[in-house]
Amino acid sequence: MPRRRRLRRVVEPPKFRGYKPYGHPGRNRSKVELLYEEYEAIKLADYDLMNHQEASELMGVSRATFARIYESARRKIARALVESKEIITVFGNAYLEKNWFVCDECNARFTIPAAGGNKYCPMCKSAEIKPLRK
């Protein structure tokens, strides 16, 4: 029986739900699902310029596991670019470091401070917010 998978820590969810290729009709095309932990691995290694050991410690996984997550993310992004496929983000096997919310009106993603207790979107002041989870 295999070991149970550990959840990967994600500091901040992606600020997008997906990307579509420009200038290419997307009819009858499959989508590439980029997991939150794959997005986090790309962000830490390529955007924040962390080495794999530092990034793996931040995500709470081993260096080898981080390398597998990173490689999977790179392959998915490359496939989406070469085959003109849409990229969508999905929750995956991760947990968010803070309690994140999404607004149904403007799609903003934000946290609510523990002291605040304000249940309104900071961007459009809508009360139509929900927790950002699976």
Would you kindly provide a written description of the structure presented here, covering whatever features stand out?
With 134 residues, the protein is α/β, with parallel strands linked by helices. The chain folds into 2 domains: 1-21 and 29-97, Orthogonal Bundle (Arc Repressor Mutant, subunit A); 98-134. Helix content is 30%, strand content 21%. The strands form 3 sheets. The chain has a 3-stranded mixed beta sheet with strand order 2-4-3. A 3-stranded antiparallel beta sheet has the order 7-6-8, with no helix packed on it. It has a two-stranded parallel ribbon with strand order 1-5. α1 (36-47) packs antiparallel against α2 (52-59) and α1 (36-47) packs across α3 (63-82). It is globular.
Annotate the secondary structure layout:
Blueprint: E1 8-10, E2 18-19, E3 31-35, H1 36-47, H2 52-59, H3 63-82, E4 86-90, E5 94-96, E6 100-103, E7 109-111, E8 129-131
Parallel strand pairs: 1-5, 3-4
Antiparallel strand pairs: 2-4, 6-7, 6-8
Helix pairs in contact: 1-2, 1-3, 2-3
